Amino acid sequence: MKVDGKAYRTIWLNPDGWSVEIIDQTKFPYAFETATLRTLEDAAHAIRVMQVRGAPLIGATAAYGLCLALREDASDQRLAEAYEVLHATRPTAINLRWALERMRKLLLPLPEADRLSVAYREAAAICEEDVEINRSIGAHGLTLIEKIAATKKPGEPVNVLTHCNAGWLATVDWGTATAPVYTAHDRGIDVHVWVDETRPRNQGGFLTAWELFHHGVPHTVIVDNAGGHLMQRGQVDLVITGTDRTTLRGDVCNKIGTYLKALSAKDNSVPFYVALPSPTIDFSIEDGIREIPIEERSNREVTHITGRGEDGEIRTIEVVSSGSGAANPAFDVTPARLVSGLITERGVLEASREAILSAFPERMSPAA
Ligand SMILES: CSC[C@H]1O[C@H](OP(=O)(O)O)[C@H](O)[C@@H]1O
Prior knowledge:
Blueprint: E1 2-3, E2 6-7, E3 11-13, E4 20-23, E5 34-37, H1 40-48, H2 55-72, H3 76-87, H4 94-107, H5 112-149, E6 158-162, H6 179-186, E7 191-196, H7 203-215, E8 219-222, H8 227-232, E9 238-241, E10 245-247, E11 252-255, H9 258-267, E12 272-275, E13 281-282, H10 288-291, H11 300-303, E14 304-308, E15 314-318, E16 331-334, E17 341-344, E18 347-349, H12 353-359
Parallel strand pairs: 6-7, 6-9, 7-8, 9-12, 10-13, 12-17
Antiparallel strand pairs: 1-2, 3-4, 4-5, 10-11, 11-16, 14-15, 17-18
The structure holds ligand LNRAV4D5.
Residues 53-56, 164-166, 170-171, 176, 203, 241-242, 244, 254-255, 330 line the site of ligand LNRAV4D5.
C-alpha cells in the first residue's frame, strides 16, 4: 500500500539479493522504520517480538528465515534446526507451520547445492500469492459492502467494525479484513470503520488506525468494550475480522476479544464475517476451542503500555495497580455458529466443513 505516496509492502528482498527488509511494526504509530533481517535469528526475533505480526506475514517472514539459515548451511540438519527455531516463535497462527512445511517439502528432496536459490524463489512466491489472495478477498468482500451501500441514503456510510489489525500490515500487502474496505473506498463507496483499539497491544489503535488514516478511509477508534453498544444502536452494519487459524468446520481463532464481538453481533443480528486466506485454514483440526493452541503472552503487556507523552517522548508506563497479577491470552476462538460467512480468495463461504472442502478440495488430498 502507499505510505506518503510511496508504495510499500511489509517485507521485501533487498537489492543485495539475500537480506530481507521488514517494516518494524513495534515502532508504530509514532515512527515508520524498517529493519534488516540477515540471519535466522533476526527472522525468529522479528516474529517473537512482533516486529512483524499477522498470520500471513508471519508465514512469509518464516519462509525468508529459512532462506537466511540455508545461506549459512544448506544441510538437512540446518534445515531441521531452522524449522524448529522458527516454528517455536509463536504457537497460534497456522500460516507459520503452513509456510515452513511448504518450504521443507520442496527443499528436502533437493541436493544441498540447489536449495538456496529454490528457497528464495519459493519465499518470493509465498509473498506474491499472499498479495493476490488478499486482492481476491477484497473483491469478494466488496459484494457484501455494496449490498449494504445500496440500502443507504446519500451521505450515509456503510459502517464496518473491525478488531485488531488484519490490514496490509498483517500481510504482505492489501490485508485481509481491510481488503474489502480498501476496495470499496477506492471505488468511491462511502465506508466508515469502527476500529477496536484492541488491548493490550493496541494493534487496532496503533496499526489499523494508522493504515486507514494513510489511505484516507474515514474511521473512528473505539475501546474494545464499545462495539456491542454500537451494534445495539444500529451503528454497525457489518463486522469483518481477520483470523490466525480457522478449523475445517469453520471455528475461527483470532485476536482476543473477537469472540465477544461475534456474540454481540449475533445478539443484534449484525453480519459477522471473517476474512480468511486459505493458508490460514487448518485442515487437520475441527474443534477450535479444544485443538487450537492459544498463545499466552507476557503479563507485562497488560500491566504496562508504551505511548507518546504530552512532551512527545515515547515512554512505557504502568497502567495496572502495582503488585496485582495479570493474565494475557492473546487469542480466542469464535465457534462457526456465530460466523455469518468466510470471505476467501475463492468466494464467500458458509462457515462449514462442507463449504470449505468444496472450495478447497485439493487441500485434503494426500499430496497436499
Ligand atoms: C491477517 S491475520 C491478522 C490477525 O493476526 C493478529 O494477531 P497478531 O497481531 O498477534 O499476530 C490478529 O489476530 C489479526 O486478526
